[in-house]
Known about the structure:
By secondary structure, this protein is of the alpha+beta class. The protein has 13 helices and 14 strands. The protein has a five-stranded mixed beta sheet, covered by helices on one side. A four-stranded mixed beta sheet has the order 1-8-9-7. Strands 2-4-3 form a three-stranded antiparallel beta sheet. The protein is globular and about 65 Å long.
Amino acid sequence: MALRRLDNRAARALFMDRHALLERPSGNAKGAGLLELIQRLGFVQLDSINTVARAHDMILFSRRPSYRARNLSRLYEQDRALFEHWTHDAAVIPMAFYPHWHLRFQRDAALLKSRWRNWRRDGFEQQFESVLTHIRDHGPVSSSDVGKDEKKGSGGWWDWHPSKTALEFLWRSGALAVVGRQGFQKRYDLTERVIETHLCPGNLPCDAEQTIDWLCNAALDRLGFATSGELAAFWDTVSASEAREWVKQALIKGHAEEIEVTCADGRARKVITRPEWPDPTNLPPAPGRMRVLSPFDPMLRDRNRAERLFDFHYRIEVFVPAPKRNYGYYVFPLLEGDRMVGRIDMKAHRDQDVLRVTALWPERGVRWTDARTRRLESELDRVRRFTGLTRIEFVGEWLKDPV
Length: 403
């Protein structure tokens, strides 16, 4: 029997709906309302680059324009409704999901002990007890508070001293929890002081099979449709073979069905989805307004998936030497309706109180009309207010030809 097929437009609609981008950007952006949004997304990636605003703040602002950075800080650092750990990268995650990270703690412990021993971080395991004792006696610490008499290696910013490595290991393996950031530097405390006792590792059994089932279900719910590889990559805890077995069992039990989605280039791709979900063609159309997205937005995190669905090839060029960049150091994608229409190079110059736009590249096939410019100006004005700046400045011949 032929598989049900979603055309490209319907596939994009379902994917955007799952990522809270199909509805009009509005709604409660603090407290329980903000937590509900983060639960819907699954997690929000943290990133230190602050050319306009940090990635996590831009992600939330693009969906809830009344959002302000202090709202996330309160939810995380005061209310303890979120915890920080790793998915594919550092992220804040709803505290309700914490029990499902025990498996990650175990796997990170085994992986990092082996990996870090080979990265010239000799001696970090011998620092575990001294680091834990220091925190127990003195309270939360940052990496600058430990190992002051230890020599840092010469391998670059990642070549930490042993106590810094011990801090990171103890966090990644669950003995410590991050309680917040100061100047984006993590502050660590004992897990039992931060996480409710009944949720802590050791007090709650870690059932690998149940955790894998939860992670795969939760990933599928947030992706709308996926291959087994995409399910494994979403939280980056489940292995590829575990995800394949989960998909096999989900199909047998009727918890998923295999369908085809049409990619932007017309090719069909086999995926699984939920059989009970409504027809995506009945979803409302995406808002026509233009939105600036973070380069780390959940919708674009999987670069290959974004290219297949939206014909949008995006690579961040932070680590690319300036003469070799196609675009710029930190270029923001532009979403209009259900289509990626361009990318913009801009920066908040806070010392001059201005949001400065230096370049905009429409995507190939997108005609940059006066109406689009007006929609862009409206969005940039929202971004300006969000960043607390007074004015916007367009520099020179800012509208470029597609690359």
